[in-house]
Specification:
The structure is a single chain. The protein is built from six helices and no strands. The chain has helices at residues 3-29, 49-68, 77-80, 83-106, 108-122, 128-149. It has two domains: 1-81; 82-160, no CATH class. Helices cover 70% and strands 0% of the residues.
Length: 160
């Protein structure tokens, strides 16, 4: 097995474990009421439906990668990627983890405004006023859609 295939195998196993964990723990992460989508059946969807659906797709992607590893004979670009690029990805993932934890303490709106503003800045968009304004608008709009449109409670904290 080549270095690239070992790297793929490791990635696929990590993603598969993450998908399974998301499937198992999504009921504790999602709170709210059941809601129905107008124009569909009378069966109500629980708030856990979409996170679990996403976790199934994550697991299927990981399984697809596991199955196709032996079929590839060329190295992936990941083998020649520089360490600084991996560091950027790791810092981005760490930022997402911090965001998810901060949602529990500060609520959805405040955490999302801070996260979107910071990620926009670090992503290269330097107009802080526009980034902040868009982050506030998107956060509030999502909060209203989930609360009044879908009847799903997002975590509340400071201010909202």
């Amino acid at each position: 097995m080549s270095h690239g295939q070992k790297l793929e195998l490791t990635l696929a196993i990590i993603v598969l474990i993450a998908g399974v964990m998301l499937f198992i723990y999504s009921p504790t992460l999602v709170r709210g009421w059941a809601f129905s989508i107008p124009g569909t059946t009378d069966v109500a969807l629980e708030p856990v439906f979409f996170p679990r659906l996403a976790s199934v797709f994550v697991c299927l992607s990981a399984l697809n990668l596991l199955i196709t590893i032996p079929l590839r004979r060329i190295d992936l670009p990941a083998v020649t990627t520089k360490r600084i690029e991996y560091l950027k990805v790791i810092l981005g993932l760490l930022g997402i983890l911090i965001y998810l934890l901060s949602v529990l303490f500060f609520g959805f709106v405040v955490s999302t405004v801070i996260f979107v503003s910071l990620m926009s800045y670090f992503g290269g968009y330097k107009n802080i006023a526009i980034s902040f304004g868009v982050a506030v608008a998107v956060s509030l709009l999502l909060r209203l859609i989930f609360r009044y449109g879908l009847h799903v409670n997002l975590p509340q904290g400071l201010l909202f």
